Amino acid sequence: MFGVLQGFALILGIIGAGYLAARFRVVEGEQRRVLNNVAFYVATPALLFTVLHDSDPSIIVSPVILITSSAALIVAGVFILVSRLGFRRDLAETTLGATCAGYVNSNNLGLPVAVYILGDAAYVAPLLLVQLVVFAPAVLAILETTRGNQRGALVALGRAASNPVIIASVAGLLFALFSLPVPALVLGPIDMLGSAAIPMVLLSFGMSLRGQRMLQAGTGRAAVFTASGLKVLAMPLVAWLLATAFGMPAHEVFVATTIAALPTAQNVYNYAATYRRGETLVRDTVFLTTFASLPVIALIAWLLGGS
């Protein structure tokens, strides 16, 4: 459990550094968007390529990942339904809210959880692949269609296909599938750029908190609470029910439930800030789920960890 606390402390420390940078005017106003854009268009594609090109694509079809991915799609669908009937948010905010409900922090929180609670870092690697190869391109394609392009959805989807995040993900997956070598002279700079992606995203998120109050009236708190509840409560419950119904071994039930309880990934805020859609909704949900997930994960470990 100490390793999980270290993971949370790491994230909150970098977010705090971003907040202080804005508080003391190292970065002011819209300048934070420069950092966010560098993260989105340069560092994140480099990170995705390095992660995927070293991966084993066959692990995407593991039973645990099929369960957690199904749980993500179910809670995302519930958010969409509630949004259409209750919040009446536009397509972009509905998409981002649904993504908040099901897109987990499988990297900088998922890894310590996998190592120190689940006992094996390999448990989160398949989910990372699914999110990068399937979920992220779908979300970005939808966000592209909301940019008001008058030439139609096909053009917007074409722009999505040229998105550097998607290009890097596809390229990394192809290199892994065909076991293509990457020269060290090429991989070195890519790897170094990729290592800057997560700190940049967290710093940008921290900067966005300056001058803002979380969960202010009139900012769509109902949508935030719905997305947060679906993420940290409903998704692990759905994962547990599915894993149990399919007769998975007790330890795999524990693994699937724990992974599903991870908080919303900061990458979702990166997408929202880049496309300037639903930023408050995503920011508040990421903030809330990051804190709320810790006691939920501890409870799951207590209830199921000895299975």
From TrEMBL:
Highest taxon listed in the record's lineage: Bacteria
Pfam family, one: Mem_trans
Keywords: Cell membrane, Membrane, Transmembrane, Transmembrane helix, Transport
Bilayer-crossing regions: 6-22, 34-53, 59-82, 94-117, 123-143, 164-186, 192-210, 222-247, 253-273, 285-304
InterPro entries membership: Mem_transp_PIN-like (IPR004776), Na+/solute_symporter_sf (IPR038770)
Location (main, coarse): membrane
Membrane topology, as annotated: Multi-pass membrane protein
Family membership: Belongs to the auxin efflux carrier (TC 2.A.69) family.
Intracellular or extracellular location(s): Cell membrane
A biological process from GO: transmembrane transport
Record organism: Leucobacter luti
Gene3D superfamilies cross-referenced by the UniProt entry: 1.20.1530.20
GO CC aspect terms: plasma membrane
Protein name per UniProt: AEC family transporter
